[in-house]
Design goal:
Length: 319
């Protein structure tokens, strides 16, 4: 049974402080999302699972700049996610309202024949589609942690899922649509990915996946936070990045590909042979070695560091 312990460890009668955000410093959400490497693996996995739903892929293809500006889209998605997890309650709720407002305009006619088998139209405010997007983030957080750091005890998985319910409701997913607990959630994900389920990549999804997994590098130095840090060096660095051969950094996404369910990976046509498995083992093994050496401030997302600083609640072992 889920729910005897409040998700963030607060008393049931206590009003959460704005500085604590939607989850709070004792939550599983703050603990499981803080390691940058985990979310950099789980993030692409979540995006690939989202667009593996044919109707989600239609919305992304028709209303997103993912193909023209993959770095901007990925950075924006990550920024929103971390603001919801680690921001103050005010900031997190404002971000959710902003996203809900954007999603109201994400609607249209289905173009891909594979997606048309499910529906002739789509809308991002469909509770079933909103649930799938929400679920991919939860499932990918768990998958990355369990694959790279080790299995989570059942009670921790249950607490983490219980904590996410408030966010699901804020995104407009009705109570009777949200899986009630972690067991129901696991069953829901399995059913969506089953041969008879709706989540199977279309041609549109495969084209979007190519943009995610093979982004051009030069735009990194031409706009965004990285370009601002480079300053006057941005233009020379962009020119240098253009000289790199196509696919020069594809290997960095191999751990994220490895986290995908095997059937979904095969449906995308992504190879997973001895070479890919060796690179995956090397990258993940290297990160595991460094995690015991680097301090949290060198490993965690800046948003997580800021949240623990803001609340003055650093875990004793990490101070």
């Amino acid at each position: 049974m889920v729910g005897r312990r409040p998700p963030t460890g607060r008393a049931l009668s206590a009003e959460p402080a704005d500085t604590d955000g939607l989850y709070g410093p004792t939550s599983e959400a703050w603990r499981l999302n803080r390691e940058a490497a985990l979310l950099l693996g789980g993030g692409p996995r979540a995006l690939l699972l989202q667009i593996a739903h044919p109707l989600v892929a239609e919305g992304v293809a028709q209303h997103s700049d993912l193909r023209s500006d993959p770095w901007g889209r990925l950075a924006g998605t990550l920024r929103s996610y971390l603001r919801i997890v680690y921001g103050t309650s005010t900031a997190a709720r404002a971000e959710i309202r902003r996203l809900n407002g954007l999603h109201r305009g994400v609607t249209g006619a289905v173009g891909d024949p594979g997606a048309a088998l499910l529906s002739v139209t789509y809308t991002a405010r469909d509770p079933e589609l909103a649930l799938w997007v929400h679920a991919t983030l939860i499932d990918s957080t768990l998958a990355a942690h369990e694959a790279w750091l080790g299995p989570l005890p059942a009670d921790q998985r249950a607490r983490f899922y219980a904590e996410t319910l408030v966010v699901g409701r804020l995104f407009g997913i009705p109570e009777d649509v949200l899986p009630r607990d972690i067991d129901a959630f696991d069953g829901y994900v399995a059913g969506m990915l089953a041969p008879s389920g709706p989540v199977h990549p279309t041609a549109t999804a495969r084209a979007l996946a190519s943009a995610i997994l093979h982004p051009p590098l030069a735009p990194l130095a031409e706009s965004g936070a990285f370009a601002r840090r480079l300053g006057a060096a941005a233009s020379p660095v962009a020119s240098l990045l253009r000289t790199l051969p196509s696919g020069a950094t594809d290997w960095l996404y191999i751990p994220a590909i490895g986290l995908l369910p095997g059937t979904t990976r095969a449906e995308y046509g992504l190879p997973w042979g001895a070479r890919e498995q060796a690179i995956d083992a090397w990258l993940v093994g290297t990160w595991r070695a460094w995690i015991g050496v680097l301090p949290p401030r060198a490993r965690w997302f800046p948003q997580a560091i800021a949240a623990f600083d803001r609340t003055g609640t650093w875990p004793p072992a990490d101070r």
